[in-house]
Amino acid sequence: MGAASPANFEALEAQARTLLAVFIAAGYEAVAPDIIQPAGVFLDVVGEALRGRTYVFTDMDGKELCLRPDLTVPTCRLYLQRHRDADQEAYYSYNGPAFRFQPASADASHPREFRQAGIEAFGDKDAGEADARTLVLVLRALQQAGLPGWKLRIGDVALFDALLRAADIPERWRRRLRHQFLRPDAFRAELKRLSTNPARSAAAFPRALVEALDPNDVARAESLVAEHLEQGGIELIGVRTAAEIAEGLLAIAADTKAPPLKPEAAALIEAYVKTKAAAPQATSVLRKLISKPSAAFSEALDAYERRCMLLSESGVDMNAVEFSAEFGRSVGYYTGFVFEVLVEALGPSSPVGGGGRYDGLLKAVGAPRDVPAVGGAVHTERLLAVVRGGKR
Amino acid sequence: MSARLTFAVPSKGRLMEQTAEFLGQSGLTLRKVGHDRGYRGAIEGVDGIDVAFISASEIVAALGSGRAHIGVTGEDLVRENISNADACVTLLKPLGFGRANVVVAVPRCWLDVSEVADLEAVAAVFRREHGRPIRVATKYLNLARRFLSGKGLADYRIVESLGATEGTPAAGTADLIVDITTTGATLAANGLKVLEDGVILRSEANLVASKMAEWGEETKKARDTLLARLGIQVKMD
Fold first, then answer.
1. So what's the ipTM on this one?
2. Are B234 and B92 in contact (CB under 8 A)?
3. Cβ of B109 and A229 within 8 Å?
4. Which chain A residues contact residue B84 at CB under 8 A?
5. Which helix (H) or strand (E) holds A131?
6. Residue A392 — pLDDT band, cuts 50, 70, 90?
7. Do the strands A90-99 and A113-122 form a parallel or antiparallel pair, or are they unpaired?
8. Residue A53: count of CB within 10 angstroms of its CB
9. 3-state secondary structure of B179
10. What DSSP line would sit under B25-89, residue for residue?
11. Which of these, A334, A361, A367, B141, could form a disulfide with A86 (CB 3.0-4.6 Å)?
12. How far is it, in rounded angstroms, from Cα B130 to Cα B149?
C-alpha cells in the first residue's frame, strides 16, 4: 500500500484527479492546507487521544508543530486565514497526506501515512441541504473512482443532544453524559450513577465546608474556600482560583441534594442509544420510543426526516442505509449529521469514506462565533485497494 | 552475527549495585572486561554471555529493538518507551528493588478533586475561565495519556517535562502532573496530593527478555543456563 511503489503512486494520482474533478465540478474550490500545523491550536481541538497518535515535533525556533492527523482542522484554519470574521460561505475540496502513528501490528488498511480527498462547506444557510449534498458528492466521487458498491451508515448527534436537553437534570449532568457518549461502557456507568447515587465520592470532600456552601451566594463560597485553605495550612498554588474551586465544590454540594435522574428517563436514554434501524424507519421507531417528545427533539426528528428525503430525492437508496443512534461517538467534534461508507472487503473498522456536521469547530480554532460547517473525506489508499479488488 | 547472549545491566548508581547484589545472591559475579571504566563485561563462570553496562533507559531501547537479549530495567520505562510492550518483551521476574509508583498528582488546594473522574468538571470550567485545556506535566507521555484517556478524560494537554516536574503546578507552567514517587514527600513539599485512584503503575526493577532479539540455539542455551542459575522458572521457546 501507500504511494511508495511507483505503480501505486500513479494509480493514487489518477484516482485523486477523478475524485477532485467531481468536487470541483460541484463548486468546491481546490485548496492545499498546510501539512505542518501549529501543535497548540490544532491539538487543543482534537483532544489528547488523537494527539497520542499525532507526530509532534519542535522546530529550530522552539515552536511546537505537528504533521496534520487529518485535513478538516487544517481546512478550517485555511478558511479563517481567508475570512477572519467567518462571515462568508465557502466550499473547499482537497487531496493530500495525513499522518497518524500506528503500532507495528497495524494492518494494511491503517497506514501511518495516508492521503485524504474530501470537501468542507462553511457558512451554509440550509443545514439539511448542505448535509445531503456533502454525502451525495462523496458517494458520486466514490462511484466515479470505480467503487462498485457500499454500505452506508448514518447517525445524528443533534438527536442525542435534544434528548438530553429534554431530561429534567442539571446542565452539568448533561455535560457529563455528552462527554461520556464517546465511551459506551463509561456512558452506561454514568447513567447508572446519575439514576441511583449522583453524589459520587462526596465523602472524599471536606464535609463541613461542602455543607456550609450556599449555591445562591457564590462570593461567600469563595471566601469560605479561602478560609478553609488557610486554616488547613494549604497554599493556593497554580492557575485555578479559589472561585473555581468553590464552583467545583458547589456542584458537588448540589449533587448531594439533587434528586437522581428518574429511572424511566435513564431507561429512555439507554434505549435511544441502542436504537438501530433502516434509515427511513428510524423516526417511527424513535417516535414510538419517546411518546411525549420535547419541542427540541421533535424539531431534530423533523430535520432528520427532511435530510433523508433530500438524500432520497438525490438518488440515494435510503432503505439500504442503516441509522445507528450511537454512531458519531468516535470523533469528538461532530454536532449533527454523521455518515460513513463501508465496504465488505475491509470490514466495519476501516471505512473508505466518512464525515459529518461540526458547527462548533470553527469557533474552537479561532472564529468569533459558531459557524455552520459540514464535510466528508475519502481514505484514498483504502479506496484504491478495494477498487483493485485486493490485487496489486 | 555473534551467537552470544547480550545481557544489559544498569551502568551506574543504586540500580547497578542492586543488580550486582541480586546476581550475587545466586553466586553470580559481574566482571568488567578491559579497563575499569569500560562498558563491556562478563559473568564469571558462565559462558556465552556478553554483559553490556548501559543506562536503564537505553536498556529498554536495546530490549525493544533486540540489540540486547536480556536486561534489568524498571517496568515504568518498559511500559512508557515500548508502544506494544507485551509483543516486544517478556517480564521474567520482578526483582524487589528500584520500587517507585507512577502517579497522578494535583495541587492540594484543589478541594473539589479526589479522583480522576473529578477532573472532567475541572477541565470544563477551566477552559471557560482560561481559554485552554488543563495541562499535565510529565516525562511519562505515553503512560499518562493511556491512563487518563482510559479513565475518560478528554480535554487535557500533556506537556513534556524532563525535570523538576513536581514544581510545574506552582510555577504555573502546568496544572497537574504525572510523575514517579517513592514516599510522596517531594509531592507534599510541593503542595501536591496523589488522587485516590491515581496510581498508574507500581513499578520495580525487572529481569526482562526481548522477543525481538535473535534467539539461536546457543543464545537460548546461554539464557536457560542463566535463568537456571538465578532459580527462575519460565517456560520459553
1. 0.86
2. yes
3. yes
4. 103-105
5. helix A127-144
6. very low
7. antiparallel
8. 15
9. strand
10. HTT--EEE-SSTT-SEEEETT-TTEEEEEE-HHHHHHHHHHTS-SEEEEEHHHHHHH-TTHHHHE
11. A367
12. 22
Q: What length does chain B have?
A: 237
- CB count, 10 Å around CB of B183? 9
Give the number of other Cβ atoms within 10 Å of residue A120's Cβ. 28
Cell numbers describing residue B113: 478533586
Claim: this prediction has a pTM higher than 0.95: no
Chain A nearest CA to B172, separation (Å):
5
What SS3 class is residue B207?
A: strand
Say if residues B93 and B232 touch (Cβ distance below 8 Å).
yes
Which of A55, A237, A245, A255 should we substitute to test contact with B (largest number of B Cβ atoms within 10 Å)?
A: A237
Q: Work out the mean pLDDT of chain B and round it to a whole number.
A: 92
Q: Which long-range contacts (CB under 8 A, 24 or more apart) does A227-235 make?
A: A228/B111, A229/B109, A229/B111, A234/B108, A234/B109, A234/B191, A235/B108, A235/B109, A235/B191
Q: Which helix (H) or strand (E) holds B1?
A: none
Q: What is the 3-state secondary structure (H, E, C) of A190-247?
A: HHHHHHHCCCCCHHHCCHHHHHHCCCCCHHHHHHHHHHHHHHCCCCCCCCCCHHHHHH
A171 CB neighbour count, 10 Å cutoff: 10
Residue A51 pairs in a beta bridge with none
Kindly list the distances between the CA atom of residue A226 and the CA atoms of A202, A232, B113, B189, in Å, as whole numbers in the listed order: 20, 10, 16, 20
Cα A60 to chain centroid distance, Å, stands at 34
Just give the CATH number of A6-150+343-387.
3.30.930.10
Using an 8 Å Cβ cutoff, are A332 and A47 in contact? yes
Nearest CB neighbour to A244, from listed B125, B158, B196: B125
Cβ of A48 within 8 Å of Cβ of B172? The answer is no
pLDDT digits 0-9 by tens, A258-289: 888 888 889 899 999 999 999 999 999 999 98
Nearest CA among A213, A214, A210 for reference residue A201: A210
Give me the domains of chain B, ranges plus CATH numbers.
5-98+205-229 (3.40.190.10), 100-203 (3.40.190.10)
* Domain ranges across chain A: 6-150+343-387, 152-197+263-334, 202-257
Q: Within chain B, where are the H helices?
A: 13-25, 56-65, 75-81, 85-88, 119-130, 141-150, 168-171, 185-189, 217-229
Least confident segment among A43-52, A72-81, B146-155, B158-167: A43-52
**Tell me: the pLDDT tens digits for A195-240?**
888 876 666 788 888 888 888 888 899 999 999 999 999 999 999 9
Q: Which residues of B touch A (CB under 8 A)?
A: 83-84, 87, 107-115, 117-118, 120-122, 124-126, 129-130, 132-133, 142, 145-146, 148-149, 152-158, 169-170, 172, 175, 191, 196
